[in-house]
Amino acid sequence: MITYNWQQQDWPHFRYDLLKMQEMLLSIAQKTGLITGKLTHLNKDLRMEAMINFMIEEAVKTSEIEGEYISRPDIRSSIKNKLGLNKNTATVNDKRAQGVVEMLLDARNTFKQSLTENKLFNWHLMLFASSTNHNLKIACWRAHDEPMQIISNHHGRQVVHYEAPPSKHIPEEMTRFIRWFNATAPGKSQAIIYAPVRAAIAHLYFESIHPFENGNGRIGRVIAEKALSQGFGYPVTLSLSQVIETKKKEYYEALHTASKSNEITEWIYYFVNVVLIAQTEVEIQINFILKKSKFFDTFETVLNERQLKAIQRMLKVGVKGFEGGMSAKKYMVITDTSKATATRDLQHLVSINAFKQIGSGRSVRYELNLL
Q1: Which domain covers residue 324, as residue numbers?
Q2: How far apart are CA 38 and CA 329, in angstroms?
Q3: Whether residue 320 sits in one domain with residue 233
Q4: What residues contact residue 287 under an 8 Å CB cut-off, 6+ apart?
Q5: What is the pLDDT of residue 259?
Q6: Calpha distance 70→273 (Å, rounded)
Q7: Minimal CA–CA distance to 357: which of 331, 327, 322, 313?
């Protein structure tokens, strides 16, 4: 019979060896300093752009991990509404966007505060305020008698991957978890020196308890980012969920393995690597924002309205780049212009080094020259 971590005598006294991840922890510390430096060199508007971009990624991807798909425009509109950046409040069609954004912004704004039961209930309420499931218990611990199980269908039969503690144990378990989280914060009696290690344990510990009927994954990832923010001393500008969603199977396998024992070295190694990859994504995004800013400083005054519209469309997709590059046909559609005008505009962009020409003849394409 399988016994889970919470059923074992040493629960929740997690054991781990950080020896093999010292290099990764050092890299994270170095990248933290590098990213902080780069962010301070961005002006206020560019810092805000970076923060919004990562909030969008986190909101979209933390939802996708749970099988919910929320549109980026709704997420962006919700963020800008909450931050007061829209002259007129933008319409948000998917109310789930408002909920996840409200939770993420609250976690960001209150990262220094101790974790409380009331805070967790408020996050749950934000997340599910627009839910049409009237049977879902919101802003309270789960209380149903049936087991809380993580199940999948495999070849026509159900497979139980994990069973959480019974509902009757949740108040006691969560009181102990909250006490542990606050005691291990920087400067506290049981402080864990490395923020990524504390974030890894906090996420696993919370997910093992699985205290809510729904939303445990999303709130658990917010708790991990709160731990990182407290450790770094400022709200982190990164997206753990962006990295996790890319290899979601690995995430669930790592959680599944970690749920069987309170020796969690492999889980921490996995999670610390997620943080390191997320930081690398931050560096890429900041470099992209800097290049984009330099591009407009160089070329904006010599671009006509059509060219500016096309370039903004190309930049909208972010660091991954405009799929297939720009062509005369795409330019005509985006700017609603003739082929002759499109060709003339594109050739002008090449001549001033704003665009790079790729190929020739009918297959010619153009890419932004972001130096």
Answers
A1: 303-368
A2: 38
A3: no
A4: 38
A5: 95
A6: 27
A7: 327
Last residue of one domain, picked from the residues 263, 288, 313: 288
| Cα 371 from Cα 369, distance rounded (Å) | 6
Percent of the chain exceeding pLDDT 70 equals 98
Chain centroid to CA 104: how far?
A: 10
Q: Is residue 295 part of a domain?
A: no
Say yes or no: 205 and 352 in one domain.
Answer: no
Which amino acid is it at 134?
H
Lowest mean pLDDT among 96-105, 166-175, 358-367: 358-367
Q: Categorize the per-residue pLDDT at 323 as very low, low, confident or very high, splitting at 50, 70 and 90.
A: confident
Residues 262 and 8: beta-carbon distance below 8 Å: yes
DSSP 208-253: HH--SSS-HHHHHHHHHHHHHHHHHTS-----HHHHHHHTHHHHHH
Q: Are residues 224 and 140 in the same domain?
A: yes
Token digits of residue 220:
């658990």
- 52 burial type by CB count under 10 A (0-12 exposed, 13-18 middle, 19+ buried): middle
**What is the C-alpha to C-alpha distance for residues 110 and 130, in angstroms, rounded to an integer?**
23
Q: Kindly report, residue by residue over 271-319, the tens digit of the pLDDT.
A: 999 999 999 999 999 999 999 999 999 999 999 999 999 999 999 888 8
